[in-house]
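Tokens for chain A. Residues wanted.
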């Protein structure tokens, strides 16, 4: 993926002695551990919104791909582990008002110089539950979006679906939208596990939705699983993996259960005075994901990231992830959505009514932003791409002007001393054990000022 000329990174981090062993961590305690951006979201501030507004009136960086993310925050029920901005109490009028606001927000961006007539290279519908919308609502939204930013150059269009909301009629409508990857939030196949963790669907709905999605020919079907949910057991996890393998999905993403502060699990922990979450510890979750990877590898799948296995790496490229990890522009619309344009991060208003009020008054619904330094941009891309297993040192040297083996000498030495690093002439990579705990290891690359406080 091509990118714009980038600034030279700052002063290389000096090499110092690395600690002999990684800090031990077993129990799952409250907090965000999954690293999805840098600097951490907690560093973004309302006073930096002006910096973001300033880049909107400038032409885009040359040859930088544009992605589009749309947040659909509606759900049938809130999962006990969910930390996203979702709503379960909105009626048809509320939803129509929100869809109108999405199109109004997109219209304001489409006229900005920073968009500059570009068309999105990749598109993602996330949530919440995008498949909560009816076929008519989906048609209204996507027709309006295509008029503002045509999709004819999109290489990938991803759509998240909750199996219980996916009727045959709706699946066909989603396919006719142009969706190329349907991502099914299955999480587990055991009905008791699904119920006690607050999921709305059950295993019968999974089988029906998956079978019909295959029948109508989605180019790629991805399924999500979570290792370590409440009341997970060794036997039930093995059964879940066996059922997932039997489906032969094009790709599988397997997450390790975490318990952020804004989840109902944490609220229960807080009320009961508990410090440790009632889910599997980190060592067990890493082992379960390792075992799942191994089962998929037995039947020909390839591990392509810390969370992902794919059946055919030549066909399954995850363009959204590739763009997100390599500095592409990401225009994000909707309540609480995160994006970045011309190197500046932003987040929208994170509550429903403030978001609507801002859009309906003719303003962009911005909540906070951050302009990273050149060094922070380098760190962001290096960390995120390391989650894919390995990076090419020459590519980073060419883009940022400093060899990553010099720029990140200290954290790389730490990972090397812990036995997690695999190196060749041009490759810097992680062992499988390192990959399975990469989010913890990436903290070594954080500037010390970002290691304290909450990630989000």
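Reply:
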């Amino acid at each position: 993926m091509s990118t714009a000329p980038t600034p030279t990174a700052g002063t290389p981090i000096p090499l110092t002695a690395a600690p002999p062993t990684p800090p031990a961590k077993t129990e799952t305690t409250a907090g965000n551990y999954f690293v999805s951006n840098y600097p951490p979201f907690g560093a973004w501030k309302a006073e930096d919104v002006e910096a973001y507004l300033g880049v909107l009136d400038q032409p885009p960086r040359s040859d930088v791909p544009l992605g589009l993310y749309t947040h659909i925050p509606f759900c049938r029920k809130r999962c006990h582990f969910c930390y996203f901005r979702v709503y379960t109490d909105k009626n048809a009028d509320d939803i129509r008002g929100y869809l109108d606001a999405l199109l109004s927000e997109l219209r304001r961006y489409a006229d900005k110089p920073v968009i500059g007539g570009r068309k999105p290279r990749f598109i993602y519908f996330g949530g919440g539950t995008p498949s909560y919308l009816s076929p008519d609502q989906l048609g209204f939204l996507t027709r309006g979006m295509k008029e503002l930013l045509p999709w004819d150059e999109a290489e990938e269009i991803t759509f998240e679906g909750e199996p219980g909301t996916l009727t045959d009629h709706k699946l066909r409508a989603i396919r006719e939208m142009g969706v190329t990857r349907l991502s099914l939030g299955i999480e587990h196949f055991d009905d008791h596990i699904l119920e006690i963790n607050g999921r709305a669907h059950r295993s019968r709905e999974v089988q029906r939705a998956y079978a019909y999605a295959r029948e109508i020919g989605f180019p790629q079907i991805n399924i999500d699983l979570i290792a370590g949910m409440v009341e997970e057991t060794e036997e039930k996890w093995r059964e879940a993996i066996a059922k997932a393998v039997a489906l032969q999905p094009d790709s599988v993403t397997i997450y390790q259960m975490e318990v952020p502060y804004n989840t109902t699990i944490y609220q229960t922990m807080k009320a009961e005075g508990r410090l440790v979450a009632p889910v599997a510890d980190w060592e067990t979750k890493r082992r379960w994901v390792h075992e799942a990877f191994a089962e998929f590898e037995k039947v020909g799948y390839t591990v392509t990231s810390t969370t992902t296995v794919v059946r055919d790496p030549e066909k399954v490229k995850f363009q959204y992830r590739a763009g997100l990890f390599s500095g592409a522009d990401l225009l994000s619309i909707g309540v609480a959505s995160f994006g970045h344009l011309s190197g500046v991060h932003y987040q929208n208003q994170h509550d429903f009514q403030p978001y609507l009020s801002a859009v309906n008054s003719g303003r962009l619904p911005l909540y906070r932003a951050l302009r990273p330094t050149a060094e922070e941009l380098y760190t962001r891309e290096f960390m995120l791409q390391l989650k894919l297993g390995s990076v090419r040192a020459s590519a980073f040297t060419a883009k940022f002007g400093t060899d990553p083996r010099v720029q990140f000498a200290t954290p790389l030495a730490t990972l090397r001393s812990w036995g997690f690093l695999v190196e060749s002439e041009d490759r810097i990579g992680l062992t499988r054990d390192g990959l399975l705990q990469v989010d913890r290891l990436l903290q070594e690359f954080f500037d010390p000022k970002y290691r304290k406080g909450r990630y989000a």
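Residues 1-39+373-456 form a domain with the Arc Repressor Mutant, subunit A fold (CATH 1.10.10.920). Confidence is low (pLDDT under 50) at residues 1-18.
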